[in-house]
Amino acid sequence: KMKRYRVLIFVVFCFMFTTLYLTKFFSPQWIESMVDEKNSYNKYKAEKQFSLHGSLSLVAEKSNKSDVTNIKLDMNGDLFPSIIMSDSSGRLGNQLCVYGTLLYFQKVHGMHGILNEGQESALVSVFQEDKMEIGANSFNLPPQFNANWESVAYHTPQGAWFPNDEFLANIDKYKYNRFLNIGQFPHYLFLFKQILGHIRQDLIFKNHTQSLVDQYLTELREESSSDKEIIFVGVHCRRTDYGWHMESLAGATLVDHTYFDKAFDIYRSRYNTDSRQVVFLAVSDDQPWIKENLGKHSDVRFGLDFSQGKVEDGQMPGFDLCLLASCDHSIHTYGTFGMWGSLLAGGDVIATTGTTGKEEATTEEDQIYRRAAMENWVYLDVRDKENIQEVTISPSTSAT
User: Fold this and answer.
1) pLDDT tens readout for residues 108-143
2) What does pTM read for this prediction?
3) Following DSSP, what letter does each residue of 284-345 receive, concatenated?
4) How far apart are the C-alpha atoms of 313 and 125, rounded to whole Å?
5) Strand pairing partners for 377?
6) DSSP state of 2
7) How far apart are the first and last CA of the chain?
């Protein structure tokens, strides 16, 4: 009897202690302050989207196998919106994919996206910090609790990262009380394409960069000998280390000048008229190559010809991306940087497919684009350089 009384007293004491403790640490004020927002303009915080809809309680259960009473801490209801993050350490294009993916889950499913300092640093070196809804966060729990970060992503052998099917199929189960990791290189284009308007509102280039780009576009318009409207087409050519990346993961190769020749002809046929003229603005991580291979076209200009001497080397990616985003339409090859130039520009897009040279073999870009099935995008199948074909992609849930 005394043993039962002692157990009962212990349970009551634990329940009272826990109630007092949680009153302090799981109050709305604590939930709001547990994420240390560096960005005082963070709209998500300002809109007070944190709310409490549940409680923690102690539950005592008598063991069937012994006299031991099992005491467990139960979480009831929706205590806090799930915290979602990525451990990506990639460059600017990768961090844009992280931002777009986090913003999707925050906007559409009410989760709370967080960046680490390195991710935010990559973005705010190019974009205006006070316009971004997600910033760097220092996340802390009381010492009695630990965050169990759950991975909800997988990657294909070709390197494309996608959310787990179970996670998407049961998304309501993941909206509250969880700590979620969306993968090292989340490229959920098929999801964040739904909020591209919001993303473009968040990602505003720094004033100095945008002013330089506007100056360049104005000079190009003024040098035209006619009164035609200039239609700018941004061109991004990714090369250097990406050739090894494609070869090692998918057995693919870089495109040559024939891809660009075909893409240029498509845009000329679409937009060159008596009142309009296309001008292509090319940027690349391999300047000698694009000058040698694209310089033969009289309607091609190179971003470096303007930016050299005006933009520091460390700021060149921001200028190049801003130039691509300021164009009317886009051409890109592969990689996240060129893709984001096309997404931020928002016009027609031409991209590659068939770089493996085989009918069934795919690259990570092929897998990402097939699943996203973007409107106004055309893909050039480069398997036969003498007969490059335009193809469109229908929606697919397959990652193979």
Assistant:
1) 999 999 999 999 999 999 999 999 999 887 767 777
2) 0.83
3) ES-HHHHHHHHTT-TTEEEHHHHHTTTS-GGGHHHHHHHHHHTSSEEEE-SSHHHHHHHHHH
4) 13
5) 349
6) H
7) 65
